[in-house]
Amino acid sequence: MKNTVFAIDLAKSVFQLAVSHHPGRISQERRLTRSQLLRFMGKQSPSIVLMEACGSAHHWGREFRRLGHDVRLLPAHDVACYRRASKTDATDTQSLLEAARNEAIRPVPIKSIEQQALTALHRLRSRWLATRTARINTLRGILREFGLVIPLGARRVTPQIRIWIDDPEISLPTPLCNLLREACEEVGELDRRIRLVESQLEALGKEIDVVARLRTIPGVGLLSATALVALVGNIARFPSGRHFASFLGLTPREHSSGAIRHLGRISKRGDVYIRMLLIHGARAVLLHAKRRENPDPLRQWVLHLAKTRGHNIATVALANRLARIIWAVWLRDQDYREGHSTSCHRCQEVPVR
Prior knowledge:
Layout: E1 5-9, E2 14-20, E3 28-33, H1 34-42, E4 48-52, H2 57-66, E5 70-74, H3 76-80, H4 89-100, H5 113-144, H6 157-166, H7 174-206, H8 209-214, H9 222-232, H10 241-247, E6 252-257, E7 260-266, H11 272-291, H12 297-309, H13 311-332
Parallel strand pairs: 1-4, 4-5
Antiparallel strand pairs: 1-2, 2-3, 6-7
Protein backbone atom coordinates (compact mmCIF):
# COMPACT_ATOMS: atom_id res chain seq x y z
CA MET A 1 0.00 0.00 0.00
CA LYS A 2 3.05 2.33 0.02
CA ASN A 3 2.24 3.01 -3.65
CA THR A 4 -1.12 4.35 -2.58
CA VAL A 5 -1.23 8.11 -2.16
CA PHE A 6 -3.93 10.03 -0.27
CA ALA A 7 -4.23 13.73 -1.12
CA ILE A 8 -6.26 15.64 1.45
CA ASP A 9 -7.53 19.19 1.08
CA LEU A 10 -7.84 20.45 4.64
CA ALA A 11 -10.77 22.51 5.89
CA LYS A 12 -12.64 23.31 9.08
CA SER A 13 -15.50 20.83 8.71
CA VAL A 14 -15.55 18.99 5.37
CA PHE A 15 -12.38 17.47 3.87
CA GLN A 16 -11.83 16.50 0.24
CA LEU A 17 -9.83 13.29 -0.22
CA ALA A 18 -8.40 11.81 -3.41
CA VAL A 19 -6.90 8.32 -3.63
CA SER A 20 -4.29 7.47 -6.26
CA HIS A 21 -2.88 3.99 -6.83
CA HIS A 22 -0.95 4.98 -9.98
CA PRO A 23 0.91 8.25 -10.60
CA GLY A 24 -1.20 10.78 -12.46
CA ARG A 25 -4.45 8.87 -12.00
CA ILE A 26 -7.13 9.36 -9.34
CA SER A 27 -8.89 6.14 -8.38
CA GLN A 28 -11.35 7.46 -5.83
CA GLU A 29 -12.62 10.76 -4.42
CA ARG A 30 -14.44 11.22 -1.14
CA ARG A 31 -15.75 14.04 1.05
CA LEU A 32 -15.40 13.36 4.76
CA THR A 33 -16.40 15.27 7.86
CA ARG A 34 -13.95 16.07 10.60
CA SER A 35 -15.04 13.10 12.71
CA GLN A 36 -14.99 10.69 9.75
CA LEU A 37 -11.50 11.61 8.48
CA LEU A 38 -9.45 10.14 11.33
CA ARG A 39 -11.56 6.95 11.45
CA PHE A 40 -11.20 6.50 7.68
CA MET A 41 -7.42 6.95 7.70
CA GLY A 42 -7.10 4.64 10.70
CA LYS A 43 -8.57 1.80 8.64
CA GLN A 44 -6.10 2.26 5.77
CA SER A 45 -2.78 0.46 5.44
CA PRO A 46 0.36 2.64 5.81
CA SER A 47 0.40 4.94 2.79
CA ILE A 48 1.66 8.31 1.62
CA VAL A 49 -0.50 11.23 2.77
CA LEU A 50 -0.18 14.59 1.01
CA MET A 51 -1.43 17.89 2.44
CA GLU A 52 -0.72 21.55 1.95
CA ALA A 53 1.33 23.19 4.71
CA CYS A 54 -1.53 25.39 5.90
CA GLY A 55 -3.68 25.86 8.99
CA SER A 56 -4.05 22.67 11.11
CA ALA A 57 -1.73 20.73 8.74
CA HIS A 58 0.83 20.02 11.45
CA HIS A 59 -1.87 18.71 13.80
CA TRP A 60 -3.25 16.34 11.19
CA GLY A 61 0.28 15.39 10.16
CA ARG A 62 1.07 14.23 13.71
CA GLU A 63 -2.20 12.32 13.89
CA PHE A 64 -1.69 10.52 10.56
CA ARG A 65 1.94 9.78 11.38
CA ARG A 66 0.78 8.19 14.63
CA LEU A 67 -1.37 5.87 12.50
CA GLY A 68 1.72 4.75 10.57
CA HIS A 69 1.34 6.87 7.43
CA ASP A 70 4.14 8.69 5.62
CA VAL A 71 2.97 12.30 5.82
CA ARG A 72 4.31 14.97 3.47
CA LEU A 73 3.37 18.62 3.79
CA LEU A 74 3.92 20.55 0.56
CA PRO A 75 4.33 24.36 0.40
CA ALA A 76 1.02 25.90 -0.62
CA HIS A 77 2.56 28.33 -3.13
CA ASP A 78 4.26 25.42 -4.95
CA VAL A 79 1.07 23.37 -5.04
CA ALA A 80 -0.87 26.30 -6.50
CA CYS A 81 1.36 26.22 -9.60
CA TYR A 82 -0.11 22.84 -10.54
CA ARG A 83 -3.76 23.91 -10.36
CA ARG A 84 -5.05 23.72 -13.94
CA ALA A 85 -8.70 24.79 -13.53
CA SER A 86 -10.79 26.85 -11.17
CA LYS A 87 -9.98 26.58 -7.49
CA THR A 88 -12.15 23.88 -5.93
CA ASP A 89 -11.52 21.22 -3.32
CA ALA A 90 -11.23 18.59 -6.08
CA THR A 91 -8.69 20.57 -8.12
CA ASP A 92 -6.71 21.23 -4.94
CA THR A 93 -6.26 17.50 -4.36
CA GLN A 94 -5.31 17.00 -8.01
CA SER A 95 -2.65 19.70 -7.76
CA LEU A 96 -1.31 18.05 -4.60
CA LEU A 97 -0.82 14.77 -6.46
CA GLU A 98 0.93 16.51 -9.35
CA ALA A 99 3.18 18.61 -7.11
CA ALA A 100 4.28 15.52 -5.16
CA ARG A 101 5.77 14.09 -8.35
CA ASN A 102 8.21 16.99 -8.56
CA GLU A 103 11.28 16.02 -6.54
CA ALA A 104 12.47 19.65 -6.50
CA ILE A 105 9.62 20.56 -4.12
CA ARG A 106 10.82 19.82 -0.61
CA PRO A 107 8.22 18.84 2.01
CA VAL A 108 7.77 21.05 5.06
CA PRO A 109 8.84 19.29 8.29
CA ILE A 110 5.99 18.55 10.67
CA LYS A 111 6.26 20.70 13.78
CA SER A 112 6.13 19.24 17.25
CA ILE A 113 3.69 20.49 19.86
CA GLU A 114 6.55 22.34 21.58
CA GLN A 115 7.44 24.15 18.37
CA GLN A 116 3.85 25.17 17.81
CA ALA A 117 3.62 26.43 21.39
CA LEU A 118 6.62 28.72 20.78
CA THR A 119 5.07 29.90 17.51
CA ALA A 120 1.78 30.65 19.27
CA LEU A 121 3.54 32.74 21.92
CA HIS A 122 5.31 34.78 19.27
CA ARG A 123 2.05 35.34 17.39
CA LEU A 124 0.26 36.52 20.51
CA ARG A 125 3.09 38.88 21.35
CA SER A 126 3.13 40.31 17.82
CA ARG A 127 -0.63 40.88 17.82
CA TRP A 128 -0.62 42.55 21.23
CA LEU A 129 2.40 44.66 20.27
CA ALA A 130 0.65 45.82 17.08
CA THR A 131 -2.52 46.63 19.05
CA ARG A 132 -0.49 48.58 21.62
CA THR A 133 1.23 50.59 18.89
CA ALA A 134 -2.13 51.36 17.28
CA ARG A 135 -3.60 52.57 20.58
CA ILE A 136 -0.57 54.77 21.29
CA ASN A 137 -0.72 56.32 17.82
CA THR A 138 -4.44 57.00 18.27
CA LEU A 139 -3.81 58.77 21.57
CA ARG A 140 -1.04 60.85 20.03
CA GLY A 141 -3.31 61.90 17.17
CA ILE A 142 -6.22 62.82 19.43
CA LEU A 143 -4.15 64.97 21.78
CA ARG A 144 -2.35 66.66 18.92
CA GLU A 145 -5.72 68.12 17.89
CA PHE A 146 -5.79 69.89 21.28
CA GLY A 147 -2.26 71.23 20.83
CA LEU A 148 -0.67 68.62 23.12
CA VAL A 149 2.35 66.86 21.61
CA ILE A 150 3.78 63.82 23.39
CA PRO A 151 7.59 63.33 23.20
CA LEU A 152 8.96 60.40 21.25
CA GLY A 153 9.01 57.04 23.01
CA ALA A 154 6.18 54.63 23.78
CA ARG A 155 6.98 54.65 27.51
CA ARG A 156 6.33 58.39 27.74
CA VAL A 157 2.77 58.28 26.40
CA THR A 158 0.62 57.09 29.30
CA PRO A 159 2.56 58.94 32.06
CA GLN A 160 2.32 62.19 30.10
CA ILE A 161 -1.40 61.74 29.44
CA ARG A 162 -2.10 61.13 33.14
CA ILE A 163 -0.19 64.33 33.99
CA TRP A 164 -2.28 66.34 31.54
CA ILE A 165 -5.55 64.83 32.77
CA ASP A 166 -4.78 65.87 36.36
CA ASP A 167 -3.44 69.31 35.37
CA PRO A 168 -6.14 71.97 36.01
CA GLU A 169 -4.43 74.40 33.64
CA ILE A 170 -5.01 72.10 30.65
CA SER A 171 -8.66 72.25 29.65
CA LEU A 172 -9.47 68.85 28.22
CA PRO A 173 -13.19 67.98 27.97
CA THR A 174 -14.33 65.88 30.92
CA PRO A 175 -15.87 63.04 28.81
CA LEU A 176 -12.59 62.81 26.88
CA CYS A 177 -10.54 62.66 30.09
CA ASN A 178 -12.52 59.65 31.28
CA LEU A 179 -11.95 57.84 28.01
CA LEU A 180 -8.27 58.75 27.98
CA ARG A 181 -7.93 57.13 31.39
CA GLU A 182 -9.55 53.97 29.99
CA ALA A 183 -7.20 54.03 27.00
CA CYS A 184 -4.18 54.35 29.29
CA GLU A 185 -5.42 51.38 31.28
CA GLU A 186 -5.78 49.40 28.06
CA VAL A 187 -2.21 50.23 27.02
CA GLY A 188 -1.00 49.20 30.47
CA GLU A 189 -2.86 45.90 30.20
CA LEU A 190 -1.29 45.23 26.79
CA ASP A 191 2.15 45.95 28.29
CA ARG A 192 1.44 43.42 31.03
CA ARG A 193 0.43 40.77 28.49
CA ILE A 194 3.55 41.36 26.40
CA ARG A 195 5.76 41.01 29.48
CA LEU A 196 3.91 37.81 30.40
CA VAL A 197 4.61 36.30 26.98
CA GLU A 198 8.28 37.25 27.22
CA SER A 199 8.54 35.62 30.64
CA GLN A 200 6.98 32.46 29.21
CA LEU A 201 9.46 32.50 26.33
CA GLU A 202 12.31 32.98 28.81
CA ALA A 203 11.15 29.97 30.81
CA LEU A 204 10.77 27.77 27.72
CA GLY A 205 14.12 28.96 26.37
CA LYS A 206 15.91 27.73 29.50
CA GLU A 207 14.62 24.23 28.77
CA ILE A 208 16.05 24.20 25.22
CA ASP A 209 19.84 23.95 24.99
CA VAL A 210 20.09 25.33 21.46
CA VAL A 211 18.38 28.56 22.53
CA ALA A 212 21.18 29.28 25.01
CA ARG A 213 23.81 28.59 22.34
CA LEU A 214 22.14 30.82 19.77
CA ARG A 215 21.94 33.66 22.29
CA THR A 216 25.74 33.74 22.46
CA ILE A 217 25.75 35.11 18.88
CA PRO A 218 25.79 38.92 18.56
CA GLY A 219 22.39 40.24 17.55
CA VAL A 220 20.52 37.05 18.51
CA GLY A 221 18.39 37.43 21.61
CA LEU A 222 15.52 35.60 23.25
CA LEU A 223 12.96 36.40 20.56
CA SER A 224 15.22 35.48 17.63
CA ALA A 225 16.48 32.25 19.22
CA THR A 226 13.08 30.90 20.22
CA ALA A 227 11.50 31.92 16.91
CA LEU A 228 14.25 30.10 15.00
CA VAL A 229 13.74 26.94 17.04
CA ALA A 230 9.99 27.14 16.41
CA LEU A 231 10.39 27.64 12.66
CA VAL A 232 13.39 25.51 11.71
CA GLY A 233 13.27 22.50 14.03
CA ASN A 234 16.16 20.49 12.53
CA ILE A 235 18.97 22.68 11.18
CA ALA A 236 20.69 19.67 9.58
CA ARG A 237 18.17 19.73 6.73
CA PHE A 238 20.11 22.69 5.28
CA PRO A 239 23.35 21.56 3.59
CA SER A 240 25.12 24.91 4.11
CA GLY A 241 24.78 28.30 5.71
CA ARG A 242 23.95 29.86 2.37
CA HIS A 243 21.00 27.49 1.93
CA PHE A 244 19.76 28.55 5.35
CA ALA A 245 20.17 32.26 4.52
CA SER A 246 18.32 31.66 1.26
CA PHE A 247 15.53 29.92 3.18
CA LEU A 248 15.15 33.11 5.25
CA GLY A 249 15.08 35.33 2.15
CA LEU A 250 18.42 37.03 2.90
CA THR A 251 20.26 36.12 -0.31
CA PRO A 252 20.20 38.22 -3.52
CA ARG A 253 17.39 37.84 -6.03
CA GLU A 254 18.88 36.60 -9.30
CA HIS A 255 17.93 37.67 -12.83
CA SER A 256 20.24 35.80 -15.19
CA SER A 257 20.21 34.77 -18.82
CA GLY A 258 22.99 33.16 -20.81
CA ALA A 259 26.37 34.49 -19.75
CA ILE A 260 24.86 37.55 -18.09
CA ARG A 261 24.30 37.19 -14.36
CA HIS A 262 22.60 39.91 -12.33
CA LEU A 263 22.16 39.75 -8.54
CA GLY A 264 19.72 42.30 -7.16
CA ARG A 265 18.09 42.93 -3.81
CA ILE A 266 17.38 40.19 -1.29
CA SER A 267 14.64 37.76 -2.30
CA LYS A 268 12.53 38.33 0.85
CA ARG A 269 11.28 34.76 0.64
CA GLY A 270 10.62 32.67 3.71
CA ASP A 271 9.34 33.78 7.07
CA VAL A 272 8.92 37.58 7.32
CA TYR A 273 8.96 37.57 11.12
CA ILE A 274 12.31 35.76 11.44
CA ARG A 275 13.90 37.96 8.81
CA MET A 276 12.67 41.07 10.61
CA LEU A 277 14.14 39.88 13.92
CA LEU A 278 17.53 39.13 12.35
CA ILE A 279 17.69 42.51 10.59
CA HIS A 280 16.78 44.31 13.83
CA GLY A 281 19.47 42.31 15.62
CA ALA A 282 22.01 43.17 12.92
CA ARG A 283 21.11 46.85 13.23
CA ALA A 284 21.74 46.68 16.99
CA VAL A 285 25.15 45.06 16.42
CA LEU A 286 26.12 47.75 13.91
CA LEU A 287 25.13 50.57 16.26
CA HIS A 288 27.03 48.92 19.11
CA ALA A 289 30.09 48.46 16.90
CA LYS A 290 30.24 52.19 16.22
CA ARG A 291 30.56 52.85 19.97
CA ARG A 292 33.01 50.04 20.70
CA GLU A 293 36.71 50.88 21.05
CA ASN A 294 38.19 47.55 19.94
CA PRO A 295 35.64 45.80 17.69
CA ASP A 296 36.10 42.14 16.88
CA PRO A 297 36.57 41.00 13.23
CA LEU A 298 32.83 40.63 12.63
CA ARG A 299 32.14 44.20 13.77
CA GLN A 300 35.19 45.52 11.88
CA TRP A 301 33.81 43.92 8.73
CA VAL A 302 30.35 45.47 9.10
CA LEU A 303 31.81 48.88 10.03
CA HIS A 304 33.92 48.89 6.86
CA LEU A 305 30.88 47.82 4.85
CA ALA A 306 28.77 50.61 6.36
CA LYS A 307 31.37 53.19 5.32
CA THR A 308 31.64 51.92 1.76
CA ARG A 309 28.06 50.78 1.02
CA GLY A 310 25.83 52.55 3.52
CA HIS A 311 24.13 51.75 6.81
CA ASN A 312 21.10 49.84 5.49
CA ILE A 313 23.03 47.63 3.05
CA ALA A 314 25.52 46.80 5.79
CA THR A 315 22.67 45.90 8.16
CA VAL A 316 21.09 43.43 5.72
CA ALA A 317 24.48 41.97 4.81
CA LEU A 318 25.20 41.43 8.50
CA ALA A 319 21.81 39.73 8.91
CA ASN A 320 22.84 37.40 6.08
CA ARG A 321 26.11 36.64 7.84
CA LEU A 322 24.36 36.13 11.18
CA ALA A 323 22.12 33.56 9.52
CA ARG A 324 25.20 31.64 8.39
CA ILE A 325 26.76 31.87 11.83
CA ILE A 326 23.50 30.61 13.35
CA TRP A 327 23.62 27.62 11.01
CA ALA A 328 27.21 26.80 12.01
CA VAL A 329 26.68 27.26 15.77
CA TRP A 330 23.48 25.23 15.71
CA LEU A 331 24.88 22.43 13.57
CA ARG A 332 28.12 22.09 15.54
CA ASP A 333 26.35 22.51 18.90
CA GLN A 334 28.99 24.99 20.09
CA ASP A 335 28.80 28.44 21.63
CA TYR A 336 29.79 31.39 19.49
CA ARG A 337 33.29 32.66 20.27
CA GLU A 338 34.02 36.29 19.53
CA GLY A 339 36.77 36.71 16.99
CA HIS A 340 36.64 33.03 16.01
CA SER A 341 35.24 32.04 12.63
CA THR A 342 32.32 29.67 13.15
CA SER A 343 31.52 29.43 9.45
CA CYS A 344 32.80 26.71 7.20
CA HIS A 345 34.48 27.30 3.84
CA ARG A 346 31.12 27.12 2.07
CA CYS A 347 29.59 30.03 3.96
CA GLN A 348 32.46 32.24 5.10
CA GLU A 349 32.02 35.07 2.59
CA VAL A 350 28.78 37.03 2.31
CA PRO A 351 28.11 38.55 -1.13
CA VAL A 352 26.94 42.16 -0.97
CA ARG A 353 25.48 43.62 -4.13
